[in-house]
């Protein structure tokens, strides 16, 4: 028997993601005021994906508890759909995107942190929040995979979904870039920021 039930772990993880998201959104950074806001960063998108996924996990646990022993076929059918959605999201979004964000961030950080997380960001983002965004994602998702059984989709459908997400993210990045360069009010400030002492903080991606 597990020391801590997986249902309790899921609630705790969900609350931690809600806390991370709230604290991150409360930070006033220039990059949050430009087109796309926080949604430009894969780190933030990943946090939303993880929060939604664990929210579905908690909802599945509650539904399972309420339908246990009821004998209602319709409720059981809805529960199976919810479980399928949970397993699909884990396989095609939560796990691959989470692992990608953690691995790429820390590999580049170890090579040259200024490329991905300039020291100036330490003035805005505390260390615990940085680890909440770029470190704990991986152990949280591994705990979920270790403590619960999941039925994964076929390889072809999973790859198709991941590729669709990747292409969509690339197109979204292209859109934000075009919007930024097309805005005449952004052109001169962007040149000044790049040439200034603290310019990299406005153009660097967090992940």
From TrEMBL:
Its main location: membrane. It comes from the Eukaryota. The chain crosses the membrane at residues 42-67, 88-111, 152-172. It catalyses: 13-octadecanoyloxy-octadecanoate + H2O = 13-hydroxy-octadecanoate + octadecanoate + H(+); 9-(9Z-octadecenoyloxy)-octadecanoate + H2O = 9-hydroxy-octadecanoate + (9Z)-octadecenoate + H(+); 13-(9Z-hexadecenoyloxy)-octadecanoate + H2O = 13-hydroxy-octadecanoate + (9Z)-hexadecenoate + H(+); 12-(9Z-hexadecenoyloxy)-octadecanoate + H2O = 12-hydroxyoctadecanoate + (9Z)-hexadecenoate + H(+). It is a multi-pass membrane protein. Keywords: Membrane, Transmembrane, Transmembrane helix. It is found in: Endomembrane system. InterPro entries: ADTRP_AIG1. GO terms for cellular component: endomembrane system; membrane. Belongs to the AIG1 family. This is Androgen-induced gene 1 protein isoform X12. It comes from Ursus maritimus.
């Amino acid at each position: 028997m597990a020391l801590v039930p997986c249902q309790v772990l899921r609630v705790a993880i969900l609350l931690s993601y809600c806390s991370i998201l709230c604290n991150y959104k409360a930070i006033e950074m220039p990059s949050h005021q430009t087109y796309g806001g926080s949604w430009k960063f894969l780190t933030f998108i990943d946090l939303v994906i993880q929060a939604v996924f664990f929210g579905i996990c908690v909802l599945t646990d509650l539904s399972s508890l309420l339908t246990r022993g009821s004998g209602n076929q319709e409720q059981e059918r809805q529960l199976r759909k919810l479980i399928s959605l949970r397993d699909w999201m884990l396989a095609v979004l939560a796990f691959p995107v989470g692992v990608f964000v953690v691995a790429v961030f820390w590999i580049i950080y170890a090579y040259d942190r200024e490329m991905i997380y300039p020291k100036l960001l330490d003035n805005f983002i505390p260390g615990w929040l940085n680890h909440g965004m770029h470190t704990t994602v991986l152990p949280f998702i591994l705990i979920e995979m270790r403590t619960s059984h999941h039925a994964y989709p076929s390889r072809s459908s999973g790859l198709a979904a991941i590729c669709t997400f990747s292409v969509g993210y690339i197109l979204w990045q292209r859109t934000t870039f075009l919007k930024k360069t097309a805005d005449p009010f952004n052109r001169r400030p962007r040149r000044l920021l790049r040439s200034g002492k603290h310019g990299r903080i406005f153009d660097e991606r967090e992940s």
